[in-house]
Design goal:
About 40% of the residues lie in helices and about 15% in strands. It has 18 helices and 15 strands. It has a seven-stranded mixed β-sheet with strand order 4-10-9-8-7-5-6, sandwiched between helices. Strands 1-2-3-13 form a four-stranded mixed β-sheet. The protein is an alpha/beta fold. The longest helix is centred in the C-terminal third of the chain and has 25 residues. The chain binds 3-[O-phosphonopyridoxyl]--amino-benzoic acid. 3-[O-phosphonopyridoxyl]--amino-benzoic acid binds next to α7.
Length: about 475
């Protein structure tokens, strides 16, 4: 019998508080409160150590695309562990799961993205990308092309490289980030930053910041631009339709490599295999992780176009991870891709779940606290506001209201996250329309309770 079945919740929480350092957490405060301990899951539902069921509106951490409880993946892992639990791919060897997965990804990825460098996470893959694009330009005889342009409030991981590419101010404030030769432009966040502009004009203006930055730095010094097709961790920021075509025009004009960070948007999240297909962009490199294995195993990587791969192949690339292409993770990813394809899960997103969510979630826009309710595929967000007309922010620290809302959501057994004062969801792709109704009903109840709380506590105030 496992520990989770024999120990009372309070004992588990005490052990957790005493020894376990949680990521992105003020551990002192969490220790005093006690973590909610998840013991099992099935489909779109989690069960905690008190036996309470929650709807997982976040697919774990944006990763459990096929939902929980798929024993086929456990069987694939067990089979692979018995046959070949580990081998490396460094010193002129290969193994079947890694080579088959690379070939499968080359089939699925658009255009000439035909080559895969494996990692175990999105952060590691983005560290690979930094080194790979700089090495590419060095081999092309342009070693001065080193600078990578990224975006404020973008998220690309938490390693030194990934955190530097990301534009999260709170992360840059700790630990000596960013590393040199990474610069940031503004995000295409119309609701929060668009002022009086139309979304279309604002999207163009934000894209043109890339051109301005390339010209200011000198195009001969710019290696690449990296961005998420839709920002996830930044708050499900859906760019205006004008944004991506203009970005593509600019990277083409200056010969700057385009890295699409598809860690969240890949593997069906936006209703296509990749977010790049939803936005009709042609990246030279894609970052992947999360939905590649539906989170059942840690695996990520970079899918690289023919041109970049052929140049990199000219010399030894002094880079790699012990677990690059780990056979168990790769076998599980292959099984996950089989399920995504054979069960038509991406068509379910595109044809059924995403349009249904767009309507059901979009209806939350009538709530007095909601300034916008938007979605793309199965990622969606709400902007909370004290004044819908002016898109105003709340008085006080950003995120105070979002946190209150998140606490009610958790109490209503819905995992919905807050990013500042935006509420976000990204449920498993297999979610049914009945479960979308249930999710949205819980979200609405949460909003009602949050509004009552703000009124009671005098927090329904607009920032000066
Ligand atoms: N790129 C993107 C676009 C991501 O969303 C990473 C890279 C890094 O992947 P790894 O596997 O190294 O975590 C991510 C990860 C959140 C949250 O709070 C989001 C992520 C990770 C942790 C928290 O929304 N995304």
């Amino acid at each position: 019998m496992s520990l989770t079945n024999i120990a009372p919740t309070a004992d588990l929480q005490a052990l957790d508080a005493a020894h376990h350092m949680h990521p992105f957490t003020a551990n002192g405060a969490l220790g005093a409160k006690g973590a909610r301990i998840i013991v099992r899951a099935d489909g779109v539902r989690l069960t905690d150590s008190d036996g309470t069921e929650l709807i997982d509106g976040m697919s774990g951490l944006w990763c459990v695309n096929i939902g929980y409880g798929r024993h086929e993946l456990a069987d694939a892992a067990a089979r692979q562990m018995r046959e070949l639990p580990y081998y490396n791919t460094f010193f002129q060897t290969s193994h079947v799961p890694a080579l088959k997965l690379a070939a499968r990804l080359a089939e699925l990825a658009p255009g000439d993205l035909n080559h895969v460098f494996f990692a175990s996470s999105g952060s590691e893959a983005n560290d690979t990308n930094i080194r790979m694009v700089r090495q590419y330009w060095a081999l092309k005889g342009q070693p001065q092309r080193r600078t990578i342009i990224a975006r404020r409030n973008g998220y690309h991981g938490s390693t030194m490289g990934g955190g530097s590419l990301g534009g999260m101010a709170a992360m840059h404030a700790q630990g000596g980030l960013p590393i040199p030769d990474i610069v940031h432009i503004d995000q295409p966040y119309w609701y929060g930053e668009g002022g009086d502009m139309t979304p279309e004009a604002f999207g163009l203006a934000r894209a043109r910041q890339l051109e301005e930055q390339i010209c200011a730095l000198g195009p001969e010094t710019v290696a690449a631009f990296i961005a998420e097709p839709v920002q996830g961790a930044g708050g499900v920021i859906i760019p205006p339709e004008s944004y991506w075509p203009e970005i593509q025009r600019i990277v083409d004009k200056y010969g700057v490599l385009l890295i699409a960070d598809e860690v969240i948007t890949g593997f069906g999240r936006t209703g296509h295999w990749f977010g790049s297909q939803s936005y009709d962009i042609r990246p030279n490199i894609m970052t992947i992780a999360k939905g590649l294995s539906s989170g059942y195993q840690p695996i990520g990587g970079s899918i690289v176009c023919d041109e970049v791969a052929s140049v990199i192949a000219q010399d030894e690339f002094n880079h790699g991870y012990t677990y690059s292409g780990h056979p168990v993770a790769a076998a599980v990813a292959l099984e996950n891709l089989r399920i995504l394809e054979e069960e038509n899960i991406i068509a379910h997103v595109h044809q059924t779940a995403a349009p249904y969510l767009a309507t059901a979630w979009g209806a939350l826009a009538d709530h007095p606290l909601v300034g916008e309710a938007v979605s793309r595929g199965l990622m969606a967000s709400l902007a909370l506001t004290p004044d819908k007309e002016t898109r105003a922010r709340f008085a006080g620290e950003v995120g105070t209201v979002g946190y209150i809302c998140r606490e009610y959501s958790f109490a209503n057994n819905l995992v919905m996250r807050h990013v500042g004062d935006r509420m976000i969801i990204a449920p498993p792709l297999i979610i049914s329309t009945a479960d979308i109704d249930e999710l949205v009903a819980r979200a609405r109840r949460t909003l009602d309770q949050t509004l009552a709380h703000l009124q009671r506590e005098g927090l329904l105030k607009t920032a000066a």
